[in-house]
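protien #1 (seq + structre)
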Amino acid sequence: MKQFMQKYWLIALIIPLLLISCSNSDDENKEEAESFKAEAPWVPARAKKIKEMDFEYDAVIPYTDASGKKVWDKANTERRKGKGYVFLDEKYKVVYVVDWPGASTNAADGANTPFYFNFDTQDVVAEADALARTKTWHVKHFDIYNAFILTDATTENGQPGLGKLRIIRSPFDQLDEAPAEPMIRTAASVEFEDRESVDGWGRYRLSDHILHPYKDRTFIFQLRDGRYVKYQLANLYRSNPDNVIDKYEYEAPFFNFRYFIQQMPNDRNVKTR
């Protein structure tokens, strides 16, 4: 009887401790899920800042017309200071590039200077170095808004080979595995006038010249050395806004993207959750 009572009291003590532990764990998970970077609300708070840069930009200051409508007129601008960042989420090995400036002019005015990026160095590659092949680049953004994407492929477009890409209709964190089929695309673009036949990463309306990134599209790159990269181009507007009313409301191109590198060649596991 004495042994039974000792076991009973031991169980009675352990159960509350387990409940408290589970409760604390749930609270921690909830806090982690709901906590984000002040510099970029779409980046988890646990991500570590690894790069930072200062820049200046021209912000169009809106006014309200006689009808009460807010108007963005490019003639009314203000010079402001901003910051670009690169963060690393060490838990899932995801790199976040936040408000990294591209060309200095507003993208709505026309084509922009090409933007080359190296996933390994987490940095921009100068165009001269990219063209001379003195430095490695993995993805090139070019043309209007820098919204068109090109890879450093080993074969022509339409042929199987390394250094190519594929667009998957899946949100970034829900995509756990790269496709097994050989990749044949060397380029990707946005879709125009809400047409979905191109299978792009976003859409661009010629009627109002506003870019709308898709939230459920993710790139898969297979680099020249066989490694897979999962990549989401979140936005090309500064501050990664959810909704854009006018082509001059937010400055562009400012790169907001995230990616994960599977370091083992030919390993299709790209899970980040």
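ok now protien #2
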Amino acid sequence: MSALTVRPFRRDDRDQLTELINAHVAAVVPGVSVSVNTVLSELERRPSESITDPWVGERVTLVAEQRGSVVAAAHLLRYRTGPEVGETYRDAGEIDWFVFRPPASFWPDSDLAAEQLMAACLALLARWNVRVRYAGGAVPAPVVHGLPRNWPHVRALYERSGFRHAGDTEVLLIARVADLPRPEAGPGPRFERTLGECGTRFTAYDDTGAARGFIEVDTALARPERHARAAGLADIGNLHIDPASYDTGLEHRLLAHAAAWLRLAGVDRLLAYEPAQDKAAIELLLGAGFTELTRTDRGWEHRPG
């Protein structure tokens, strides 16, 4: 066995680290990969995390190297202790993400590399003397967050190392836009397109002018300067139906109008996220043409013993 080395990330690791991250992303969502520039940028700052990222006081990326190859990597965050930091994150340390190759013929010792890297991560968290230790799988790619069920090797390592799932589980669903409902002709609510909180909003109004529901779709998941391959992908940022309009089919009509807009934008896949316990919302999406892509477990906390 060639010697394993755990050390800080160097800039000349960038291509191998990006390849390792993209291998994990490919197991979660189809047709998405990130560029080297995206990875390097998000090691320094996470622009998509506008609330929590300003609370970060220190960032460290570690890699495990064997035979000149990066076989495992982890990105750690230390949150500040000041009053401006949210209570949950105040004086917390986090393994923001951890990736490594599952054992294979070419990398028979990848588990050992991951164990040594994890030991280094836990040692760093101990030196930071943080109040609480978190972990997750939020690699610098759209859609991937929490700890996806598609990474059983990472989950097993976390559990062996004393991390426990303490948060929620989210269901990730995907649909081909071509399979979604199409707008129906005839009487019905009036639909208006505006700018929403999480993307383009389509609002349904009844004859009295009252809003009965809305859907928001975000087509900006793939920024050309950052993501190498995520074109044709959008997600549902918000979907809300007034309780008085339940069971009227309004959800399908909102999806139909959003889908028509997405077709004009050249989007061919639409993602949705729902809490695992919201079975009604999941069934609604499944009935509209979505399929379950994966489940992801948010909120891992170090609870050894």
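The chain has a mean pLDDT of 92.
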